[in-house]
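Title: Prediction job returns without error message
Component: structure pipeline
Severity: low
Priority: P3
Assignee: unassigned

Description:
Job completed but the reporter wants confirmation the result is attached to the right record. Sequence as submitted:
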Amino acid sequence: MAKTSANPSVYSFSARTLNGETISLERYRGRPMLIVNTASECGFTPQYAGLQTLHQQYAARGLEVLGFPCNQFGKQEPGDAQQIGSFCERNFGVSFQLFEKIDVKGPNAHPLFRFLTHAAPGLLGFEKIKWNFTKFLVDRDGRVVKRYAPGTKPEAIVDDIEALL
């Protein structure tokens, strides 16, 4: 999945969408991204609404919101790709890009999340993701700018997003 590069960026990775299409994050070159591990049965699940609002407010200015469902935290994303997509659209009107369910920690962690957590460690320098809805803000050059805790609501990072647009 990852290409070898002297200056790795998120553009070095690809992932499969909910409909099974493999896309390279190169597709988003030159656009800031908010990359989030998501879940449908989590106390933070209502953040889908805030993520959709960010998508609606800033997509025309370049922001890409990318959701990566994960079932590693309390088994809070039990559905398959079709169920996840239907849930997100029906309950939150999600129209930003959602990807297939992945692991974001441990030996089977998706290479993108290994990169993100290494580039932007959490509290006390720990690289591990501790829960659903951890967010990573990436600049136009594919560099991780900031990591946000699961409890940080999407609307609370508007100023950081504005700075990248």
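Comment from assignee: result matches the submitted record. The beta strands are 14-16, 22-24, 33-38, 64-69, 97-98, 135-138, 144-148.
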